[in-house]
Design brief:
By secondary structure, the protein is mainly alpha-helical. It has three domains: about 5-105, Fumarase/aspartase (N-terminal domain) (Fumarase C, Chain B, domain 1), CATH 1.10.275.10; about 110-145 and about 160-360, Fumarase/aspartase (Central domain) (Fumarase C, Chain A, domain 2), CATH 1.20.200; about 365-460, Ribonucleotide Reductase Protein R1, domain 1, CATH 1.10.40.30. The protein has helices spanning about 15-20, 25-30, 30-50, 55-70, 85-95, 100, 110-145, 165-190, 210-215, 225-230, 235-260, 290-310, 325-350, 355-360, 370-375, 380-400, 410-415, 420-425, 430-435, 445-460; strands at about 150-155, 160-165, 195, 220, 270, 350. The longest helix has about 35 residues, at about 110-145.
């Protein structure tokens, strides 16, 4: 009981099972560095304000730096019996430097302490996630530049629809991930507000300089309401939401890679280093990485649901329910970092089967819209041209042929404006090349898209 910092009010030992249930050090220990950072800044401000002596401040900071060094070099292990990382470090500090260590918690509560710790921790993690997202975008754009002329079918309803290029398809994901990157930046901006000084819920009578503490901890500002400062977990929910959207994009990309790897598509083949085999079927080469990403996306969604459900009924200010924020957001952060860091080299090393992509594009009448556009350019209304082309497709199906191979006299039976130039108009290369509108699949349009994205990416500092 004597080890509990809050023991004064209690005359009876806490049941060991309750202590284990209450403890969070098994998962919040990862914030040790940020807890120490917050304490160093707090002690510095207290000293500058004359709340503690300069000598005590020096002892506290030296002691905290010693604890940090010992944790990182393996000379100090976390006590599994400690209630949390905050109590562990404070108890260790007091044991090392005596009464000066007991003065550290002046004008501070674990409520605002944990809030600043998790913000400091997640600010660092967001920057790591941003760097990974930036890397995957670069990997995608590099691959797109190599496949500007690689024709493939574009799909709607998973049915072949119109011809595009592989570069164009890849850049769709680059655009999604770019939005994910900007969402993370926005989240970081709103997170960058320091709660320390809110204390338990109502601030303090001590003359704190919260602006100074925010400067020391590199926050752009401090919270303006002490109740909100200790009870806000919006930043965890927002980050988990952003990660969920990012994982959704990775999962969609993974789903396509899974399909493209199948014998039914065979558009790509993953490198052996990023595939697995079967324990019974020797011919198998399984895209397990992408399947796991697809599965782990649901796991991150679960983390988000945990955070939302945890917070939905809580009155102000702090409640112990909020201890559940850490495992959920830590899991989401760990999961997305693992998924992206594995996805990047898998994507960079995969082999693209251009011939199979083009063969797939040559089937399925995906140039039918271009055939209708040909008639429109000859003066027919689009709906008339649409009906004629639909009839031509039906003729091709009946004769087991394609629009490219259908004889000109068959075309003329339906509309006499058809001429030999129709074959050039409906060729795959023409269909792709003429879609040169901004945002389209023509090589020149995709080049512009890549250049624009790279320019935006270069303007983002992480």
């Amino acid at each position: 009981m004597s080890k509990m910092m809050w023991a004064g009010r209690f005359s009876k030992e806490v049941d060991s099972k309750v202590n284990d249930f209450n403890s969070s050090i098994s998962f919040d220990a990862r914030m040790y560095k940020h807890d120490i950072m917050g304490s160093v800044a707090h002690a510095t401000m207290l000293s500058e304000q004359g709340i503690i002596s300069a000598d005590d401040c020096k002892s506290i900071i030296d002691g905290l730096n010693g604890i940090l060094a010992d944790i990182e070099n393996g000379n100090l292990s976390f006590d599994p019996n400690a209630e949390d990382i905050h109590m562990f470090i404070e108890a260790e500090l007091t044991e090392r430097i005596g009464d000066a260590g007991k003065r550290l918690h002046t004008a501070r509560s674990r409520n605002d302490q944990v809030a600043v710790d998790i913000k400091l921790y997640l600010k660092d993690e967001i920057k790591e996630i941003e760097a990974l997202v930036k890397e995957i975008i670069v990997t995608i754009t590099d691959m797109a530049e190599k496949h500007l002329d690689t024709v493939m079918p574009g799909y709607t309803h998973l049915q072949r629809a119109q011809p595009i290029t592989f570069a164009h398809h890849l850049m769709a994901y680059a655009q999604m991930l770019m939005r994910d990157l900007t969402r993370l930046q926005d989240c970081l901006y709103r997170m960058d507000v320091m709660p320390l000084g809110s204390c338990a819920l109502a601030g303090t009578t001590y003359p704190l300089n919260r602006k100074r503490t925010a400067e020391l901890l590199n926050f752009r500002e401090f919270t303006m309401n002490s109740l909100d400062g200790v009870s806000d977990r919006d930043f965890c929910i927002e980050l988990c939401s952003d990660i969920s959207i990012l994982m959704m994009h990775l999962s969609r990309f993974s789903e396509e890679i899974i399909m493209w790897c199948s014998w039914e598509f065979k558009f790509i083949e993953l490198d052996d280093a990023y595939s697995t085999g079967s324990s019974i079927m020797p011919q198998k080469k399984n895209p397990d990485i992408t399947e796991l990403i697809r599965g782990k996306t649901g796991r991150v969604y679960g983390d988000l649901q945990t955070l939302l459900s945890m917070m939905k009924g809580l009155p102000l200010a702090y409640n112990k329910d909020m201890q559940e924020d850490k495992e959920a957001i830590f899991d989401a952060v760990d999961t997305v970092k693992l998924c992206i860091s594995t996805f990047i080299p898998m994507l960079a090393t995969m082999n693209v089967n251009k011939q199979n992509m083009r063969m797939a594009a040559a089937k399925g009448f995906i140039n039918a819209t271009d055939c209708a556009d040909y008639l429109v350019k000859k003066g027919l209304p689009f709906r008339t041209a649409y009906k004629i082309t639909g009839t031509l497709v039906a003729v091709c199906i009946e004769k087991n042929t394609t629009l490219e191979e259908l004889a000109l006299d068959e075309y003329k039976k339906l509309c006499d404006v058809f001429d030999n130039d129709v074959y050039d108009a409906i060729s795959l290369d023409t269909c792709v090349m003429q879609r040169n509108v901004d945002g389209g699949p023509a090589p020149e349009a995709v080049k512009k898209q890549i250049a624009d994205l790279k320019n935006k990416l270069n303007g983002i500092n992480i």
